[in-house]
Amino acid sequence: MKQQFTLVLHSGPMSLGVQSALRFAQSIIKLNHQLEQVFFYGDGVYCCSNLLTPMQDEFNSVLIWQQFSQAYHIPMHVCIASALRRGLIDEKESTNNNHDNHNISVPFILTGLGQLAKAFYNQHRVIQFGR
To answer: Per residue in 44-79, pLDDT tens?
Structure first.
């Protein structure tokens, strides 16, 4: 039976948790299950900043998640409360809050915890990585 998954990332972009989540996400796709979304929460929202500039030989979580989302059409949801508290903002919220700039990369989407709550109700599995 095809399983439906949501992945929740709690840790920052250079953590092993993010790399493990990516490998798990790739396995879900490879085993022909459905990955409904990746939800970035807490320090995990730092994985969505277009200001991150890792060294050439380091894991680039922003680029990797962008490519993964584009390749498999997986929504990348970002907790709006966690993001705003950490200085991460998309174009819409930048306008709403009278800021000149934004730093959330496409395809990441700011959303509320309701999106995550739906996952607990609708998906077969919600797997958390990080804290």
So the answer is: 999 999 998 888 888 899 999 999 999 999 999 999
DSSP, collapsed to helix, strand or coil, labels residue 47 as helix
For the question of whether the overall pTM of this predicted structure is more than 0.90, the answer is: yes
Q: How far apart are CA 41 and CA 79, in angstroms?
A: 5
What is the domain count for the chain? 1
Place of tokens 């109700």: 121
Query: Taking 90 as the threshold, does the pLDDT of residue 122 lie above it?
Result: no
Would you name the residues annotated as active-site residues? 79
Tokens of 78: 């970002």
Block residue for tokens 């250079």: 14
Which CATH number does the domain housing residue 25 bear?
3.40.1260.10
CA dihedral 34, 37, 42, 43 (to 10 degrees): 80
